[in-house]
Amino acid sequence: MKEKIFNFLSTQKLLRDLRIAPNGRLALLASLGKKLSVISMESNNTVLSFDLPAAAWSCSWDLSSSHYVYTGLQNGKLLVFDMRQTLRPVELFDGLTCNPIHTVLSLLPDLTLPSGVRSLLTASSVGLCHWNFGGNEERPSLVPESENQGVCIALAYCPSSNHVVASFRPKVEMSGDMAVSQPSLTPATSLMGQGRLKSQKHPVRDVKYAHDLSSGLLSCLSEDKLQLFLKEQRSGPQCCI
């Protein structure tokens, strides 16, 4: 397994989210230090850097246009940037609440909408919001029933199948002396291959995996470091722990 390490300690503070561009050559980083940065995966240099009015919690590339990127802020606002116009965001929207937007996902074009309309899903603790840009209505709408499931903690999207998966936890009030426990994780016995990463100085905040027919790319994001692990694909599922 080949490993490539990107160090962002000198330019970033508390990395919060990472998204690899569809072409695989650029990385989009959201930072609690009020920065949204575009990093070259080849040179490890900062290509663009945007100053933000609040801490960034999430980011996303646009699947319809390579020029647009998005970031969700701690105060519930959503910013739209055009990388051809670097001075300021082209749009700034208020969310439905002031809760941090912890996930931003660009959706594939909806054929039922007019040409040029871009769609997003965002998630905060209160639920999921759907956005359309480039049309007559650009206000977010709450995805039905998502506000009744509990506290939304994660959101994922598969473009190839157009499926969305959201995770929720129950809304509970806990006293200060109440113990918190969680189930242990059991490794799957059906895995054909396994790799173990070196111990980290800081906790791993985000892990993402992408693959094609010949290889797989695993990214691990901590507060000051991005690690990329490239592994040639073998028959059967692969795992890296």
Question: Can you give a write-up of this model?
Answer:
The protein is mainly β. It has a domain at 52-170: YVTN repeat-like/Quinoprotein amine dehydrogenase (Methylamine Dehydrogenase, Chain H, 7 Propeller). Helices cover 0% and strands 48% of the residues. The protein contains no helices and 20 strands. It has strands at 2-7, 15-20, 26-31, 35-40, 46-51, 56-61, 68-73, 77-82, 91-94, 103-107, 118-124, 127-133, 141-142, 151-158, 163-169, 193-195, 206-211, 215-221, 225-232, 238-240. The strands form six sheets. It has a four-stranded antiparallel sheet, with no helix packed on it. It is globular. Mean pLDDT is 76; it is low at 177-196 and 235-241.
Short description:
Its main location: nucleus. This protein has 241 residues and is mainly β.
Mean of all residue-level pLDDT scores? 76
CATH class call of the domain at 52-170: Mainly Beta
And the CATH topology of the domain at 52-170? Methylamine Dehydrogenase, Chain H
H-E string? EEEEEEEEEEEEEEEEEEEE
| CATH homologous superfamily title of the domain at 52-170 | YVTN repeat-like/Quinoprotein amine dehydrogenase
Annotated CATH architecture of the domain at 52-170: 7 Propeller
List keywords for this structure.
241 residues; mainly beta; Methylamine Dehydrogenase, Chain H; four-stranded antiparallel β-sheet; 0% helix; disordered C terminus; RING-type E3 ubiquitin transferase; RFWD3
